[in-house]
Specification:
Blueprint: H1 2-30, H2 35-44, H3 53-69, E1 71-74, H4 82-94, E2 109-113, E3 117-124, E4 130-137, E5 139-141, E6 146-150, H5 151-159, H6 167-178, H7 192-214, H8 229-242, H9 244-250, H10 252-262
Parallel strand pairs: 1-2, 2-6
Antiparallel strand pairs: 3-4, 5-6
Helix pairs in contact: 2-4, 3-4, 4-5, 6-8, 8-9, 9-10
Bound molecules: zinc ion.
Zinc ion binds near residues 231, 234 and 287.
């Protein structure tokens, strides 16, 4: 009898340990987002005001889940406050609207530096000599559950929603890419037919961007996307959200693929731009 009681107690304790996080999350999501948090989204992410009410509600829910589940760590003496948390989570969760995916299940921690940060990079030549260089970074996405961001560039990326440059969208696109098991420019798409279609369209546009970059021809996609298929996906994500009209006009098949994947049409959130020649823009830095 005593053994039975002990067994039942252990089973109940295990069940409680398994169910508690889900219960706490549901309880957190039942509470409406505090008004000061909504005000930050509205103030720092201009596109928020352009979303239809149901999408705003979805975004607030996902942001609340993001804030509940992810740790934020300030680096180089930065103290991470609500403004930083909301501005980062708000943009990251834009990529999840209308999609059944969970909120970056592989992500655990967001590290935030005050500005561009230096990281050592080792390069090994054929003779086995390791040369250490240090590069300025605006952001990094790791497959082990970390995203690293420069707050300066997060703020800049959020404030101008039409320049095609957004470090949060870029790094979180890398996170989505890695959910498929490898960072190769193809996020989880479901059926083999979707992967075939995706590969066909993206490899064509990737090749044309590599050629544009090589011959220094202007492209609506930042030349940094020519670095690799993974960078192409991240750069094209920035362009899809920030320059949707131009992307749809110049790369209609690519735009259609992204519309199917992200399940939104960002043209609904911004007016068509005036037909003026664009300046080439680029970070000129690694991310
Ligand atoms: Zn990148």
């Amino acid at each position: 009898m005593q053994a039975l009681i002990v067994t039942v107690a252990i089973v109940l304790a295990l069940a409680a340990a398994m169910l508690a996080p889900g219960w706490r999350l549901r309880r957190a999501l039942r509470r409406p987002m505090p008004q000061q948090h909504v005000d930050i989204l509205r103030r720092n992410i201009p596109v928020y005001a352009r979303l239809q009410a149901p999408l705003q509600e979805q975004l607030r829910q996902r942001v609340q889940q993001f804030l509940f589940q992810k740790k934020f760590v300030g680096c180089d003496g930065l103290v991470v406050d609500d403004e930083m948390r909301l501005t980062i989570a708000g943009q990251a969760c834009l990529l999840l609207l209308n999609r059944p995916s969970r909120v970056y299940p592989g992500l655990d921690t967001v590290l935030v530096y005050p500005s561009a940060f230096l990281v050592p990079r080792n390069q090994v030549d054929e003779a086995g000599v390791v040369t250490e260089t240090r590069q300025d970074l605006l952001g990094e996405s790791w497959g082990d559950g970390r995203v690293v961001l420069s707050w300066d560039h997060v703020r800049r990326g959020a404030s101008d929603w039409t320049d095609g440059q957004n470090v949060v969208l870029h790094e979180f696109a890398h996170q989505l890419d890695s959910e498929s098991g490898s960072n190769n420019g193809a996020p989880y798409l479901g059926s083999p037919a979707r992967y075939r279609e995706w590969a066909q369209v993206l490899s064509q546009d990737f090749a044309s961007l590599r050629s544009d970059a090589y011959y220094q021809q202007h492209s609506v996609l930042d030349h940094y996307g020519a670095t690799s298929p993974a960078e192409f996906f991240a750069v094209a994500t920035e362009t899809f959200y920030e320059k949707p009209w131009q992307l749809a006009e110049r790369h209609p098949a690519l735009f259609a693929e992204f519309e199917k994947y992200y399940r939104v049409d960002p043209r609904e959130w911004q007016d068509a731009p005036p037909a003026v020649p664009e300046q080439e823009a680029g970070y000129g830095q690694w991310r």
